[in-house]
Task: structure prediction
Amino acid sequence: MKIGVLALQGAVREHLRHIELSGHEGIAIKRVEQLEEIDGLILPGGESTTLRRLMNLYGFKEALVNSDLPMFGTCAGLIVLAQDIVGEEGYLKKLDITVERNSFGRQVDSFESELDIKGIAEDIEAVFIRAPHIEKVNSDNVEVLSTVGDKIVAVKEGNYLGVSFHPELTDDYRVTQYFIEHIVAESKKANV
Ligand code: GLN
Result:
């Protein structure tokens, strides 16, 4: 399958590598017209205010709000997908959740944790960098896949997957492979 990585800002190369390791074709997406070529899109981590500004500038907000393309958001990408952001207006509003930015506190800016992610694996090494968490799930359609303590860090709703961490920074590509071979594949099947 052909999977795009939104290439305006953030950890693009690492996601392309995980797509290739999963046995699929990765494409860096810089223009809205390229969305036609792909089966699914990854919104990478980075800085979500900058990311949203660039998405506005290049027309991605409008294109993606009106699209059914399966999407996977990591860290800043999760913030971009959320219906609500604490203290800010939600952006693409694809995942019916409320996220809080930078919510693991200053003392623990970055950390690693081994996660049990429902339906994917029980031992995913997850890297959190100034990570958001999912404060609230606002609909029964949202499935909670993983938590760290009492904080939700991975969810799925229909064609959308969102995680607080950076799966692309380790050699373990099972989360990306799950997005492609379950979420993207199933949406493709449903649209034939
Ligand atoms: N703290 C960043 C934000 O709020 C996200 C960090 C990341 O993507 N690693 O946009």
About this structure: The first helix runs from residue 12 to 21. The CA atoms of residues 137 and 144 lie 8 Å apart.
